[in-house]
Amino acid sequence: MQKIGVCGNGLMGSGIAQVAATSGYDVVVLEADQAALDRGMKRIRQSLDKFVEKGALQAAQRDEALAKLRPTTQLEDLKASDLVIEAIVENMPAKKDLFQRLDALLAPHAIICSNTSSLCVIEMAAVTKRPKQIAGLHFFNPVPIMKLVEVVKTIVTSQATIDTLFAVAAKLGKKPILAQDTPGFIVNRLLVPYLLYAIRMYESGLASKEDIDEGMKLGCGHPMGPLTLLDFVGLDTTYFIAEIMFDEFKDPLMAPPPLLKRMVLAGQHGRKSGKGFYDYEKA
Ligand SMILES: NC(=O)c1ccc[n+]([C@@H]2O[C@H](COP(=O)([O-])OP(=O)(O)OC[C@H]3O[C@@H](n4cnc5c(N)ncnc54)[C@H](O)[C@@H]3O)[C@@H](O)[C@H]2O)c1
Fold this sequence. Notes:
The chain is of the alpha/beta class. It is 47% helix and 14% strand.
């Protein structure tokens, strides 16, 4: 594995491209349009500069990493990739279309992974002629900081593919864990029902939002309480994932509570919208 392709230069793709380049890989980053490509590259430069300011990276290492990145809007530029990590929009038809085109373009040995949070990886693998070389590679936001990667094995992914991805994750400085291709993988399967239950507690008047958050911070040592975390993750994103999990497992603990649905409908999506369980509008 020498050359990595990253599809999508948004929040996650830019972080993945940055980490791959800093770890010594040659990286081609594909975006749908030039403006989004430029925004992602700016995000990468700013993040690398911050690492240099903090003394976590030397200026020469930043420059080396930037030199290893090749931004493009042409799919053909990914042709020489040994591994492609897809981090485009969370939309199955868009992902299937990309997987099909990548499968036709890449060398037979190449592996294709999806950074999807909630979609079924085998559905993407099924549109290719290399299903054994398709897996999930689920990074956490912000990618340059968060240490975990879930390596997602479908019912047909080969052990050789999984072994390669564990080695790549380790070279990226991440701790890989093995997950199955079921909604939520490991982390969200535990986290989402917990977050939904915090909303139910608040909704039923059992406790104030501040006390729920303080309880989990001081009682369990969590860095932030569940309602603050929900605002951070995005209520719309959580609602979307909860619906997919409930649809698959029919577990009432995974059903989005009525308050969550109503907040999403009202546009209260958390930090990014200026309001969620807390207010973020600048005074
Ligand atoms: N945001 C998170 O916290 C998080 C965490 C883990 C995984 N994910 C997953 O990562 C993926 C990306 O999420 P994000 O938050 O970075 O989204 P984002 O909207 O920030 O970025 C997606 C980017 O993909 C680009 N794009 C769309 N179609 C494309 C195509 N065909 N080719 C190339 N680029 C294309 C868009 O222009 C956009 O810039 C999703 O599957 C999401 O579920 C997100």
